[in-house]
Amino acid sequence: MIIKTMCPRDCPDACYLDVTVVNGTIxxxxxxxxxxxxxxxxxxxxxxxxxxxYSMTRVLNPYIKKPxxxxxxxxxxxxxxxKVTTRLSQTIEAHGSExxxxxxxxxxxxxxTDTYPHRLWNHLGVTKTDxxxxxxxxxxxxNLHYGLSYxxxxxELLEKKTIVFWGNNAKVxxxxxxxxxxxxxxxxxxxxxxxxxxxxxxADSADLWLYPRPGxxxxxxxxxxxYLIEQDYIDTEFIEEWTYGYDSYKEEALKWTPERxxxxxxxKWEGVVELGEVLANGxxxxxxxxxxxxxxxxxxxxxxxxxLIPALLGVHRGFYYTNxxxxxxxxxxxxxxxxxxxxxxxxMITLGKQLARGDFKFVYIYNMNPVLxxxxxxxxxxxxxRSDVFVVVHDTHFNETCxxxxxVLPAPTxxxxxxxxxxxxxxxxxxxxxxxEPEGNSRPETWLMWELAKRLxxxxxxxxxxxxxxxxxxxxxxxxxxxxQDLLNGHExxxxxxxKAHYQTPTGRIEFFATKTPEGVNPLPFQLEVSTNxxxxxxxxxxVPKYLHTQFRDVYGEISRDIWINPxxxxxxxxxxxxxxxxxxxxGEIKLTAVVTRKVSRGVLWCSRQLIDPDxxxxxxxxxxxxxxxxxxxxxxxxxxRIR
Length: 644
Ligand SMILES: Nc1nc2c(c(=O)[nH]1)N[C@H]1C(S)=C(S)[C@@H](COP(=O)(O)OP(=O)(O)OC[C@H]3O[C@@H](n4cnc5c(=O)[nH]c(N)nc54)[C@H](O)[C@@H]3O)O[C@H]1N2
Ligand SMILES: Nc1nc2c(c(=O)[nH]1)N[C@H]1C(S)=C(S)[C@@H](COP(=O)(O)OP(=O)(O)OC[C@H]3O[C@@H](n4cnc5c(=O)[nH]c(N)nc54)[C@H](O)[C@@H]3O)O[C@H]1N2
Ligand SMILES: [Mo]
Known about the structure:
- The protein is α/β, with parallel strands linked by helices.
- Strands 5-4-17-16-15-6-7-14 form an 8-stranded mixed beta sheet, with helices on one face. A 6-stranded mixed barrel has the order 22-26-23-25-24-27. The protein has a 5-stranded parallel beta sheet with strand order 10-9-8-12-13.
- Helix 6 (136-146) packs parallel to helix 15 (299-312) and helix 10 crosses helix 14 (269-281).
- Residues 10-11, 134, 166-169, 172-173, 195-198, 200, 214-215, 217, 290-293, 296, 302, 540, 542-543, 545, 547-549, 637 line the site of one ligand MGD.
């Protein structure tokens, strides 16, 4: 039997999947051809799902930590729930609801998994995080110039002649947009260009690869703008009709001489000319920005600068970042409005310090593996391990965060429960249909929320309301084709999208010069100085094909611990290809294996992200950071390290 479903993983593509079930067991997961964007192709993670569902690392029962020794006791749900709610009530009584922290992210983006269960926590008025660990600085950057951050639909790639992946390793991180770009190259003779300081798998297959120093994209963009201006390639009518503040922007761009651009970016001016020519004269163009581009000290500024290039050439929203914001989804599924409480909101980026300080006495974690994925791992661990902090984890699989929990609760995977998710790129939706019964004693987030609420003696009816009825309000104005009922009946619906030539800025135009900026943020994109100390290397790190962050190590083995180093830096540091090296800074260290390669320039290192070495050293212990000014995002890609 083949069951149709949709993937809710933290990935822009959200495949339609066809799952083969034999005698109640999943035997195969394949990409479905019914989605025009994901079109029958899927990634190694979906293909590996049968092994992930039946993995030895599944959490199948509730567990409570042994009192005085390492390890857990297997317990009943009643025992676990009693323990959790007793401790939760005691904590709220003794320290107030702000001493309880809800810590979750996007392990499963289904709305019944990641949104509806917030009702309990919203009702209790606990502390929440600002969810800034991934894409928030890029959104804030685009908001300044465009109002909302939405861009082109993936299908539009087929009409393009020039497709630029900028700080975006699409071949790995959004393979369906990459596949559409390849199709445009085959059928439309499109050029694929990659701008990335390292020779990523996408750069390997590009027609042109430009490699500025990390965090110098603003300089590159001003250089590009200057070239376009000097060649008279600017669409002045479009600028007049649709934009604001071009003269100030132009004045700044003209300050970026070829010499200055070369000095800051480390690139040859010829690269700027080549990119400028193909953008201006190569036919319809688009720039797809990655999330990696905006995870550095310069992150938000990078996105601001890159996003303005298509506007110079007269293109409405000639970019893609993510499309999560250009939709009409409404309602109050999380219950935040109904609860009507002012929550304390804390930064995800500086959470380590707050945890270590003991700001929270009870932490409820689900849909996230914060021990490996938050920065400042040392403080994160120290905080979780405090004797006055109680940690509950609800997860599908054992991970490093379960190791530090007081109670571990078993969750079904997305193949074992019904749900609804939305892609960050395309607009097609079909129901996530439960394919098999939940493994072991695992129970979904909705059930768990209700059981906790009952034990806490919460009587408010809306906490227990049927989530499928409650979700209907999300769709009141949201659909271009189909109805909510169609969706529930297993049919595809299509989301309505905001028009491209519509700008939600204060002037209603594309603002080259942003009229509303937070304090300390320049109205024009701003290039900070980047470190040129030869002893300090910048550690870039990014997504790799077979894993979703820290997931799928049970299926595919450990994530590669290779670290790329340029021959020049290798020699300076006495490192040879294949050497075991220690990568360190004042905050921590991790042991990796050197790969001496010209895929990275001098001063730049690259490895997979979210690593842990055999000695238990965590990569993110190297990252102790302040949030970005704009959007509060992380700065993983400006971590300075040494190597020995
Ligand atoms: N297979 C797989 N796919 C995934 C994920 C996964 O874990 N596995 N995770 C999903 C999620 S949550 C995310 S956030 C995305 C991330 O995927 P992407 O958006 O592609 O981001 P990254 O892989 O972090 O980085 C992309 C590229 O940016 C480059 N880069 C770093 N700094 C700079 C800079 O200053 N300038 C420029 N021009 N480039 C720079 C890096 O070298 C890297 O090659 O992937 C999603 N897709
Ligand atoms: N060094 C470094 N660190 C980074 C980044 C970086 O670029 N460099 N990038 C950051 C980014 S962009 C992101 S998005 C974050 C990701 O950080 P996390 O969201 O912490 O990443 P995952 O490892 O995918 O953890 C998700 C967890 O959810 C669980 N899960 C899956 N499905 C379900 C479900 O249905 N129910 C429940 N209860 N649990 C489920 C999984 O088993 C897994 O343990 O990492 C950030 N950390
Ligand atoms: Mo992310």
